[in-house]
Design brief:
The chain is of the alpha/beta class. The protein has two domains: 242 residues, UDP-N-acetylmuramoyl-L-alanine:D-glutamate ligase; 154 residues, Alpha-Beta Complex (Protein-Tyrosine Phosphatase, Chain A), CATH 3.90.190.20. The strands form three sheets. It has an eight-stranded mixed beta sheet with strand order 4-3-2-5-1-6-7-8, with helices on both faces. Strands 9-10-14-11-12-13 form a six-stranded mixed beta sheet, sandwiched between helices. α9 runs antiparallel to α10 and α11 runs parallel beside α12.
């Protein structure tokens, strides 16, 4: 379309400064800068944002604090849960400031805010002072927007620079870049890690969690570091970690009585997919993964995810995941290049089924055997799937239960 071509000629930075920044300032002004009356904990990162944010919220709630949260899944204010929209992590400034204003009116003290690089880059969080900024990790994602990894890290770092205390993952690739690029007082940086010496490690702060995989140990450590800096006693932190049941659409098991396991997960980046499959592979069951890649998003990750899937899973089913205006078959072919690189053979190790419901049906009804583990990645909690420019209703949960119903 001609509008898209004209838009492509305008630098993103100009749009951010000329459009997004003034609108964000206006939204904050109309609502009297409500975040100034709240203690805001921002959580950003490629993967793990939602789980980490919800862990922090859960611990603060358990400790008796008046806390609210705005995350990918929803906003929780008191007893009310509000849907923040389709494919949304950081809401637009109008909704964000409205929610923050509502929190002030309800005498909320703490708010946990899940933050994206897009939200930071586009000034959606203008007028929000952060007590704590948490960075989980920075892996391969959103290079369609940021163009380079360095730009992507720099966008995430805006949260750390704005926060009074910055909490970072010392084991992550981004740590070296951050420590060399940004001259921040060492007292402001609090590090956590498993492999490297850090302020918070599993040895220094012993805890138990029901969440699977090494990646969730990192999420727990990030939550431990954040809540510790807020002065929450260790007993509440440990109790919160052990009682946390997880987030909808994050390694969520769907059990209808079948003799194999089915999990739904939001993994839609190379790192997230690899971590999920590694966690499942340790169980030593046959693993079947169903996933796709979004259209009009980072194309470089597609073959990477195909290679990961065919290297770590026994069988892979490639399908749709918000193709938007791209041809879903072309997206799948790009993923398949990675499968072939890993030694996969179409029709034997991996399959191409563009229709997502049919792909889920195929994995559950044709491929699955007793004792297998199926993990369906990429959509998680989301309630729609985008084809062309239209969002159509979609529920991963309903799709899985529909497939299971016919075999039970």
């Amino acid at each position: 379309m001609i509008v898209d071509k004209i838009r492509a000629l305008i630098p993103q930075k100009l749009i951010n400064v000329g459009k997004h920044c003034p609108l964000a300032f206006l939204a904050a002004t109309i609502h009297y800068f409500p975040a100034r009356k709240l203690k805001v904990i921002g959580v950003t990162g490629t993967d793990g944002k939602t789980t980490t944010a919800n862990l922090i919220y859960h611990i603060l709630d358990l400790a008796g604090k008046k806390v609210a949260i705005i995350s990918t899944v929803s906003a929780k204010i008191g007893n009310q849960e509000i849907d923040t929209g389709f494919h949304v992590t950081t809401p637009n400034p109008w909704l964000l400031q409205k929610l923050l204003h509502k929190m002030v009116n309800q005498k909320i003290e703490y708010v946990v805010l899940e933050v994206t690089s897009h939200g930071l880059d586009q000034y959606r969080l203008l007028g929000v002072p952060f007590e704590i900024g948490v960075l989980t990790n920075v892996t391969h994602e959103h290079l369609d927007y940021h163009k380079t990894y360095e730009n992507y890290v720099a966008a995430k770092a805006k949260l750390l620079e704005a926060a009074k205390i910055a909490i970072v993952n010392k084991d992550d690739e981004s740590y070296k870049f951050l420590s060399s690029k940004f001259k921040v007082q060492s007292s402001k940086f609090i590090a956590y890690g498993i492999k490297n010496e850090a302020d918070f490690t599993p040895k220094k702060f012993k805890f138990k969690t029901n969440l699977p995989g090494e990646y969730n140990l990192y999420n727990c450590l990030a939550a431990i570091a954040a809540t510790s800096q807020l002065g929450i006693p260790a007993q509440f932190i440990r109790e919160g970690l052990s009682s946390f049941k997880g987030v909808i659409g994050r390694m969520e098991e769907i059990n209808e009585g079948q003799d194999f396991k089915v999990f739904i997960d939001f993994a839609h980046t190379p790192n997230a997919l690899e971590q999920v499959l590694k966690a499942i592979k340790s169980v030593k069951s046959r693993v079947i993964v169903v996933f796709g890649c979004a259209g009009l998003r980072d194309k470089e990750k597609r073959p990477k995810m195909g290679e990961i899937a065919c290297r770590l899973a026994d069988l892979a089913v490639l399908t749709a995941e918000d193709p938007r205006t791209e041809d879903v078959n072309e997206i799948i072919d790009q993923i398949a290049k990675g499968c072939l690189k890993a030694g996969g053979i179409e029709g034997k190790n991996f399959y191409k089924i563009p229709d997502r419901q049919e792909a889920i049906n195929f994995a559950i009804q044709k491929l699955a055997k007793k004792g297998d583990i199926i993990v369906i990645c990429g959509k998680g909690h989301e309630k729609s799937m985008c084809f062309g420019r239209t969002e159509y209703p979609w529920s991963e949960h309903k799709a899985v239960r529909k497939a299971l119903k016919s075999i039970l």
